[in-house]
Amino acid sequence: MAEYHPSYSIDDEENYLAAFKRDGFVVIENILSDEECALSCGEIWDYLERDGKVKRDNPLTWGNENWPREVCRNGGFVGRFPFWKRMKKLDQTSLNKQPQSWRNRENPLVYKAFSRILSEEKLWVSIDRYGVMRPARVAHKTNDEEPDERDDWKTKAEWLHWDLSPFHFGTSAAGFLPNENLSVDQVHKSYGSLRLQGLITLRDCPVESGGFHCVPGFTDERFFKWANEHRDTYGTLPEIASRNFIEVPHDDEMRKEIKQVPMKAGSLLIWNSQLPHGNFPNDGYDFRMVQYLKMIPVKDREFLPAMKLEKFDKSEWFPAEYSPSALGKMLFGMEDWPSSGQEENESKKQRES
User: Quick one: which H or E segment has residue 137?
Assistant: First the structure.
């Protein structure tokens, strides 16, 4: 029987906040229903099958000769890197064909978890990607022999990185728009707010199916100490100094502390961007499928919502069968969050009704 990382109910706020503070990450269970997970997985398969080469029920079609090139080999990310400023057409992303992905982004339980960890009510959500990893062992044979193991299907091994530079504190703009009014120096000087990343598991993700790994507890004091010790050496390398995406050196001692985090379907993983993390390969028999997303406080002006991008009409983002909820409109930046005065008036109306 598969073993999974300890997880918490969304209502067990005291314990999941304590776990996040201790480890730098936390798993919250039962965020999506079985139906929501199935619909999400269906959208991933629809993307993979869009050119007619891959067939979800035929492992013989899952080879590299058919597999979409837009699925990142490092971590299994589905589709183009979501740096929206450079995107020419939204059709390339299939966002307008994925209604469930939008419902997951505006899911009230997802919002509640991010809101509690950030201690902020007014948030924006990223427009990010699905992720998929093929099973390295696939049953190509009809007899009882051990299935073939496909090493060429595996994602990058021992992948450990930050999406937040320990040296200048710039954060990856994936899923958001960069605020071009802020310079790198201004970001460095204003750093201090908590940056979060997250993913939702859409299938059971036991260890053999690959998944998320990290160095638990490597945040705050340990993060800043490491940065100070490497600022004048590793931090000065040209490929490191100006980037927000930073690979952990291959010989770093922290790699001995890497912990794998298997999770049940429908779980939400949230981690501190200071946490060294990555994906480990799928060595199993089943697909790993997830959805990535982040939320940031509205008052943190390093980024803006992707839908603030004026070159795309708002209707281009959404599938015809989907309309954002009231919460979604605020999370996507389509409507402003109520001011404090408005919130107080709404609360008063509710008390009087």
Answer: strand 137-138
27 near 6, Cβ under 8 Å? yes
Distances (CA, A) of 225 to 77, 176, 230, 261: 31, 29, 9, 25
| Contact residues for 41 (Cβ-Cβ < 8 A; gap 6+) | 202, 203, 289
- CATH superfamily, domain at 13-352: q2cbj1_9rhob like domain (2.60.120.620)
To the nearest 10 degrees (0 to 180), the angle between helices 13-23 and 108-118 is: 60
List the structure tokens of 28. Answer: 């919250």
**Per residue in 17-39, pLDDT tens?**
999 999 999 999 999 999 999 99
Across the strands, what pairs with 304? 177
Residue 117 tokens read as 């960890």
Specify the residue for token string 């990223």. 126
Which residue in the block uniquely carries the two structure tokens 């507890």? 217
123 has a pLDDT exceeding 60 = yes
Distance CA 27, CA 199 (A): 10
d(CA 192, CA 221): 13
pTM: 0.92
Residue 198 contacts residue 118 (beta carbons within 8 Å): no
Q: Which residues of 148-172 are buried (b: 16+ CB within 10 A; e: fewer)?
A: eebeebbbeeebbebbbbbbbbbbb
3-state secondary structure labels for all residues of 16-80: HHHHHHHHCEEEECCCCCHHHHHHHHHHHHHHHCCCCCCCCCCHHHCCCCCCCCCCCCCCCECCC
Alpha carbon distance 148, 136 (integer Å): 8
E strands, 185-333, in order:
196-201, 211-214, 246-247, 259-260, 268-272, 277-280, 288-293, 295-297, 303-305
